[in-house]
Amino acid sequence: MAADDISDLKKRMDGALQALKREFAGLRTGRASTALLEPIMVEAYGQQMPLNQVGTVSVPEPRMLTVQIWDKGMVSKAEKAIREAGLGLNPSNDGNTVRIPIPPLSEERRQELGKVAGRYAEQARVAVRNVRRDGMETLKQQLKDGEISEDEQRRISDDIQKLTDEHVKAVDEALSVKEAEIMQV
Predict the structure, then answer these.
(1) What's the predicted TM-score (pTM) here?
(2) pLDDT per position as a tens digit, 102-111
């Protein structure tokens, strides 16, 4: 197994970490985040468009989101789309800006979100372990085909395991940071 194969495994494990971070960004904590509004689609010009394509989403305060709508005719449609998105948000508009206060979370909802974050982290761990398994199977095949020696196989196998341990540790750290963020009142 060449160094570029190990870098490919590292890239795939990094991809699992990035996917986890994107999923965590979409989890609603008590803090405002532009990622919260990413899935919202607005009826604009006869078709569905993402909210961030009809206006600029920003976070002026820790518990407030604003959407500066570019076309004044879209303000009420954007407000309606946010209200009907099922996120528990109650937007208001002042002509061309939609303000969205982020209400504090109940203790029960915080615990639910913690469990969801745990499931996301477990999926990321499984993805990292699957990459490790693929690498180990490739190593075994190369040893069987006589492409590498047993010593090389052991050394590379240890490198793959170290890489896996580092990525699982990074997943666990990301989870603990997200859980602390969710539980923060």
Answers:
(1) 0.68
(2) 877 778 878 8
